[in-house]
Amino acid sequence: MIGPAPADLHDVDWANSLVPGDFCDLPEPVRLTDGVATATSRTWGTVRVRSGRNVTYGDTDGDQRDEAALHVGCDDNGATMSGQLAVGYVVLSRLGDSLAVLGTITPRQKQTGSYGIGLTQVDFAPGRITVHERWHRPTDPRCCPTGESTTVWTREGNRLVPGEPRVVS
């Protein structure tokens, strides 16, 4: 549990919320301010965490209340040209009166190029969330990843379990 939850997650001010940082190897959650925070990653040192505006909603447990998938990312705060270090979707639900993390969705496709994998879309369905990934093949230019895959994350109780990625192009 990361705090109190409104009756409808559509009412959360995600740009100023507390989010878990496991996608960026942060030891504890971070508080976003206008969608940004600075934190210390166990892997990369000082990082900038960004989020707050790209949220997808859907009902995975059939309770007629939406869960939320908040797109998050961390970068090296401009230290290098290709500063993106990690991306993910934090999936949150209302459990009782609390906001709870069901899990953090991270890329599952094995990287074959020299650039990071992007998560481009999440689709909610009963008991699962399908995530669309774009990735660079070894000969792809930075602008234009040609690899596409999907991974189905299954909801098991109050947690998410990833399936194997499936290459679709």
TrEMBL record:
This is Uncharacterized protein. It comes from Streptomyces bambusae. The lineage of its organism: Bacteria, Bacillati, Actinomycetota, Actinomycetes, Kitasatosporales.
